[in-house]
Amino acid sequence: MAPKVFLTGATGYIGGDALVHLVENHPEYEITTLVRNSEKGAQVASQYARVRLVYGDLDSEQTLEEEAKKADIVLHCASADHEGALNAIIRGLATHGPENPGYLIQTSGTGILCFGDVERKIFGAASTKVFDDWEGIGEITSLPDFAPHRKADKVVLAAAAAYPSRIRTAIVCPPCIYGKGRGPGNQRSIQMPDLTKATLKEKKAFQVGEGLAVFLFVEQMKRVSSRDIDADCENSEGASIHVHDLSDCFLKLVEAAASGGGNATWDEEGYYFTENDEHAWGQMSKLIAEDAHKKALIPTDEVASVSAEDADRLRPHGFLLWGANSRCKAIRAKRLLGWSPTHIIKNEVSELVDIEARSLGLTQGHAAKVGG
Question: What's the pTM value of the predicted model, to 2 decimals?
């Protein structure tokens, strides 16, 4: 019998790309997605007629619980912080029997690692602290409760402990996600595109303070509270992941779950960082500046230092987006699942500048040029 997968966030950046990759590799899976309304449903249905749609949002707890009951695997990409939705999913999965446990794959984000800078209110400074998901697994599953996403992580970890024979859990923790998504809805990330857009609008490149902080960001940052933010800063090593490579990690975990757990570790050891590419945010700002200057979009390729307050003016929570530290190493997925990401962020900069320039009306796309 084909595995039943319930996926949330199908029209979002992360969930949409994961949906595409899952369907392409396993058209035999029975996939159900949660969509907010008929407009969102049409976006999915127009590309994936065989995907079953249920209507609701993350506050639709009865729907979430019912769908989790029916599913073998829940791939939750819609939020890194919504505890009510998680608890509803867990209640549904807890109805599974020991002979057929339900699997929950939760999306978190490396914003959880920025708690030190947030607590000290220091932004743009360097840090040598690097977390890892192998020898350091105990450290990352016991971070302070005030760390972003920590409350939701605890809900997932507690579910595994409370229902050890009924629920198996994994937490996927991406850093700065970049690249054009393939999903039926939003295909744009936040951190790198917004840094590029701000550079083009201001006609100059910038970094926060000394530009020595490293922060790794996930798409859920758009969910408002400063404690809900993941980010990456400017001028020291940091991690990033292309959205296609992230989707491949999700795929490998879903496949492991579909085979009864596979080679993956779950529950208290089911925590997966998904970085591939160490980089510096000051270096990213410089690459953006050089490309934009070469294309005559800004007058100079110099990178200016801005204060945390100025960064926040350029983009809400900009001081965190581009000024807090969050460094990690992804070992577990590579070692156990054979996950092998291939994309490099610096190779995406030129296309990113082109996309954001077109969105601001600074340049024309090919179709507009041909049309005169």
Answer: 0.90
